[in-house]
Design brief:
By secondary structure, this protein is α+β, with helices and mostly antiparallel strands. The chain has 8 helices and 7 strands, in the order βββααββββαααααα. Helix 5 runs antiparallel to helix 6 and helix 6 runs antiparallel to helix 7.
Length: about 350
């Protein structure tokens, strides 16, 4: 995120709601599910009145907003659930560090969801904000792609745990889906790293270096967003005893284990990327050494030949072409001696493995 994304917030009072992400023009859509163990109602919101808190205690209401660039919609929905103004400010500010904040009527969790393009291998991410309390969940994502469609399908199944376990369990399922997507991305990254290593062994090119640095930047961003998530999950278990049912805490422990595993994968791949950079530099250095070696051998062979030619080119009295031999024998004999010298030196370099 560039510094310009935050320029509009400079000097504004706390609680001022400003969207800091890239400019979006798509329409904000709001999906709503109201469910209990024995009933389910699912619909798209026609107005913000549809987002009001559930009127029945046994009903859990899930309001999912796709698009946070319309800050008025975000603000009005959150005000229906008495969300603190500072939390409302954070939801459209898409550069948030993963964190957890508790307020009077609920809990706010923010993290990033990651995905990877299988065709281009580009790693993308978006901020996901979750607000949950007694019998309600508000979730916000940046893009119009339905990130939680699989969870919605599970909620449609009668008798499923989502239908009766409460808003804390639904929050866990949303977090778990995001973390599971981490493993999909990391698996693809692992395959990319293996292919890069194979290519690097064969040859080291500038394009390969660009791919390595691009992957390194993606993993650095990934690491920055996944490390704080460990603390978030731990705090849900430790600091929210009244918000999370005892039956659901075991699922959060499993989620914490998944986050730790994903963190270990990121660290392993970062070390592999660093190792590949070292290999690349070594290959480039070795290639340069080979070039210098060839040039050195050629220079070494031609130095004595140059010396012989420069001496023979001195037209002093007493030179072979003036005394011992007829003129037309001098140069052929001298060129033959130069060839013999070059062959002997080449054979010697070959013997000592310089060539």
């Amino acid at each position: 995120m560039s510094q310009d994304d935050f320029s509009e917030k400079v000097g504004l009072p706390p609680g001022t709601v400003v969207h800091t992400g890239r400019e979006r023009t798509e329409r904000v859509t709001i999906s709503i599910m109201e469910f209990s163990e024995g009933q389910l109602r699912e619909y798209e919101a026609d107005s913000l009145d549809d987002c009001s808190p559930p009127v029945k205690d046994k009903i859990t209401k899930w309001v999912h907003v796709k698009g946070v660039h319309d800050v008025e919609i975000v603000k009005k929905i959150c005000e229906l659930y008495n969300v603190h103004p500072l939390i409302i400010e954070d939801i459209p500010s898409v550069g948030q560090r993963p964190k957890l904040e508790e307020f009077v009527s609920g809990v706010y969790i923010v993290l990033r969801s990651y995905d990877i393009d299988e065709r281009t291998n580009d790693i993308t991410s978006e901020q996901v904000s979750i607000v949950f309390g007694d019998h309600f969940i508000l979730s916000f994502q940046e893009s119009a792609i339905d990130l939680f469609n699989n969870i919605r399908q599970r909620a449609r199944t009668p008798g499923g745990r989502i239908r009766y376990a409460g808003s804390d369990y639904l929050t866990y399922t949303l977090l778990d889906l995001i973390v599971d997507k981490y493993f999909i991305v990391l698996e693809q990254v692992g395959d990319i790293i293996e292919d890069l290593e194979d290519d690097l062994i064969r040859d080291a090119t500038v394009d390969m270096l660009n791919r390595i640095y691009s992957l390194k930047r993606g993993l650095l961003s990934f690491r920055r967003d996944i490390w704080p998530l460990r603390e978030v999950v731990m705090r849900i278990q430790r600091d929210l005893p009244l918000r999370v049912k005892d039956d659901n805490k075991v699922y959060l422990s499993d989620l914490y284990d998944h986050v730790i595993r994903a963190t270990d994968h990121v660290e392993t791949y970062r070390e592999s990327i660093t190792g590949m950079l070292d290999i690349y530099l070594s290959r480039v250095s070795n290639k340069m050494n080979e070039v210098m070696k060839v040039l050195t051998v050629i220079s070494t062979i031609f130095i004595p030949l140059t010396l012989m030619a420069s001496i023979y080119g001195m037209n002093w009295p007493g030179m072979p072409e003036f005394t011992s031999y007829p003129d037309f024998y001098g140069y052929p004999i001298f060129i033959f001696l130069m060839i013999i010298t070059a062959v002997v030196m080449f054979a010697y370099f070959k013997k000592i493995d310089w060539i």
